[in-house]
Design goal:
The complex is a heterotrimer of chains A (494), B (146) and C (321).
Chain A (H helix, E strand, L loop, with lengths): L1 H11 L2 H19 L5 H12 L4 H18 L1 H7 L8 H12 L3 H36 L2 H18 L4 H14 L3 E2 L6 E2 L13 H19 L18 H5 L2 H16 L5 H15 L11 H25 L5 H12 L6 H6 L1 H29 L7 H20 L2 H19 L5 H23 L10 H29 L1
Antiparallel strand pairs in A: 1-2
Helix pairs in contact in A: 1-17, 2-3, 2-4, 2-17, 3-4, 3-15, 4-14, 4-15, 4-17, 5-6, 5-7, 6-7, 6-14, 7-12, 7-14, 7-17, 8-9, 8-13, 8-20, 8-21, 9-20, 10-18, 10-19, 12-13, 12-14, 13-14, 18-19
Chain B lengths: L6 H19 L9 H19 L11 H40 L6 H21 L15
Chain C lengths: L1 H17 L16 E5 L6 H17 L3 E5 L6 H8 L7 E6 L5 H4 L10 E11 L1 E5 L7 H10 L5 E4 L5 H13 L4 E4 L3 H9 L5 E2 L3 H10 L2 E6 L24 E9 L4 H15 L2 H10 L3 E4 L1 H22 L2
Helix pairs in contact in C: 2-9
Classes of the chains: A mainly alpha (494), B mainly alpha (146), C alpha/beta (321).
Amino acid sequence: MIENLLLGIAGTFTIESFLFMILGVVIGIIFGALPGFSATMGVAVFVPFSYVLEPGPALLLLSGIYCGGVYGGSIPAVLIGIPGTPASVPTALEGRALVAKGESGHALAIVTFASAFGGFMSSIALIFFAPLLAIIAMRVGPPEQMMIAIFGLTVVCMLSEGNMLKGLFVGVVSLLLATVGQDPVLGFPRFTFGNFMLSGGFETVSVLIGLFSLPEVFKMLAEKEGDGQEISKVSKMTMSLRDFTGHIGNYIRSTIIGIIIGIIPAAGPDIASFLSYNEARKASKHKEEFGKGSVDGIIASEAANNGVTGGSLIPLLTLGIPGSAPAAIFLGAMIIHGLRPGPLLFTQNAGVIYTLLIGFAVINILLFFFGWLCCKFAGKILVIPKPILALLIVALSSVGAFSIQQNMMDVIVMYVAGVLGYFLDRYGYPLSPVALALLLGPMLEEAIMLTGTMYSNFFMIFTRPLTDVFVLFIFVSLGWPIIKKQLKKRKEAA
Amino acid sequence: MNKFFTAHRIFIILMLAALIAFLSQVGEIPPEAKAYPLVFIIVGIAMALVLIFRKKQPEVEALDKDAIIKIFSFAVVIFVYLMLMSKVGYIISTLLFMYVGEWMLKLKKGVLFVVFPIVLTLVLYLLFTRVLSVILPMGTWIGINF
Amino acid sequence: MKRFAILLLALVCAFGTLYAGGGSDANAPYPNNIIQMIVPFGAGGGADISVRLLTNYMEDILGQRIVIQNVSGGSGTIGFSQIASAKPDGYTLGYFASTNSNDSRLFQGVTYGVDDFTPICMYSNDAHVIVVGKNSGIENMEDLIAAAKGKPETITFGLGGAWTSHDFLRISLEEATGVKFKRMVFQGGTAAVTAVAGGNCDVAVPFVSEALAQIQAGNVIPIAITSEERFELLPDVPTCKESGLDFVHTMWRGFVGPAGLPDEVVTTIDNAVKQVFDNPEYIQENLDAGTYSQYMGHEEFAQFYLDNHEQYLELIESEGL
């Protein structure tokens, strides 16, 4: 093990490696930051680029793009309230308010630090705990996935507090929309209304791009000149040690959530950020702050979404199963470079793999510094007049949505989602449940179908230890706040 | 006496109509794939009915006429842009969109007015087709493609 | 601000000329422009990787870029439709596999059929490896068939997707052995293998590339391979034939174009692929990835394509789909 680590360090600390890591991180941040573009897209489009490189630098480049991409989406989330990638939606919810309070710089600083922290810790998990965690990953079967999906969906309840019926309505309708297209078992195209192009269903990322950027664009147009305070400068980017130590529990919990979600296949940074945000809110002593500029919310969202990056590589490298969408592209790149996932990977290609592992950790450190730089530069966005920004965002979102599958339908879907989102927002409906439902819906249905095939008697699933763990989790998660409330009431009455 | 057909109620009624449209399609689905979406349709319809008929309705911030016109026309412009994209190709449609958009949003005429759309469109086009190897829509009627 | 804009404009022009290329010269022989290769499946998947490995080499031979377009969705039907409706000028080609000519029978709403494509050549012929969990107690095909006969419609059979080659293997196998399995549809062969490894599914039939990781880790046992001969990377795994079952099932991959493709195009592409197969580096890369590379030239392939279509059609009709 030690020799391998040394091998990795030797491979990482070369000029060539650093060049590609930095290049990757910067490219990733840009891709993540531009609304309409995503980390997945960034990794995908640079895979062909990476062919001319040796496997080592190629993987470092792609890893940099991955980490940078997940982080980059949070920059516009804070500055203009539009998440650059779906993983930054919770950050956008809080960032907007912090900017209004004049604390934009502080918010960006926290975002950068939390992302780097989450990513770095996940790379440590990757290096030291990959084999152990992989074993757990393997035992996650359909019943467990079903529980995880259900758990994720309970977050919808939390996110719609105060607007329960509305939030649930949005969630239910979104779950229905997630069924449009071929069903997982028979491939029958459902709800396509005769339109063949819909048989692939709604492309989730397109919907999310439209849902979270276009309403903001429309709102920008409705603003009158000089309406409200025109914030045109980013406040000083600082953070203190206390900002870290005072919230250390949050940092650790969020990172762990990120790593775990990363390990679970098909659950990526977007789901992690929501779950973590939710958990932070439940654990917070200042629940009212959430939605009005809660630093805890940002920490939770950011540490978790970058925590996914390292976690998603664990099942990828050991089992060949990608833990997230960008990781899936990563897999393809690895195979083309002649690296086959599996136990032999760590022995046959030790040099390249350990360079990747150590490099991943270094990338997250680089992320901190270059992210900081990019934030300073990105502050200039606030200077751009709103109308131009509006046109820019529409142009970027359109081309971004198109480039996912080269399917014009995705762009139309994006637009319709945006219009719908605008109205939903106006009438007080939360938009986040749409994201959760679309992301988790397919996973839920597939898991239910497979579980049904495995066990004709539903209650048999409780003989599985992992399933019981997750069910317990759900009960505690839903029940704990209620219990806390009851205990509090009793205390006050006494 | 408050009117019944507020904007919100109309919106939910439209959603209800959509749900019913989905319901009409359920018959075609083979049995194994039917139950799962059906649950959501039924629950959704029930929820929609409650949302329409309940007393507590959301308070919606009123928009002045100016804003409504702006938003509506911008939405239409975007729609036309997207429809045109596959017909006249990415470059022409994007340029058109940007110029119309700039005019609609009353941006100051000047060098920037002319140059910005050209620069943006070209940068995006070249970035995607040359560097990223993604082929953008080419017009089926006419198109500038290179 | 003005100066900035002009500078930007100049940069863009410079940028543009730097990347100029792909302009067509009408008198030059085919190909004289970028070729679009439509892959109806996502980036990073088996189909995508196989195409990329090949086109990397083809670009040098043809002297033109081949741009891969991943048009995924609908189990590939959206991508295949795009291929079928493209202009048959040779600049839009596509990936094709053994089951796709019959998609109209399997998926509602599909408008393309066997006659909407011009077959060019085959470049891969992947066998499936039948795997079971390490704790299943099953050691060879005989055991598996015996177990299945003992518990009809109970042994869970993991597939990589509805109506994929995995599914057809199941149908053919059930016909050949007279047993019935319980169909479990996963999203991708790797997911199916992992389910077997984790004890959540009894048997799966992934491609070798999908199963290698788990086989090497010792979590699944390969009991047979569905090709005519044994595979280099799994020398100890007997073929179905050797196990006493006269059964062969592989999935081939090839290139096609829309119907009506000019002969010149077909021959040029076919020859390019043939040349790549003479390159030992390519063969080795495929082996490293765990895929079977096999070349079938246009002459043979054109007929094979039609025969294959009939074969699968029969299978589909016999299942009553």
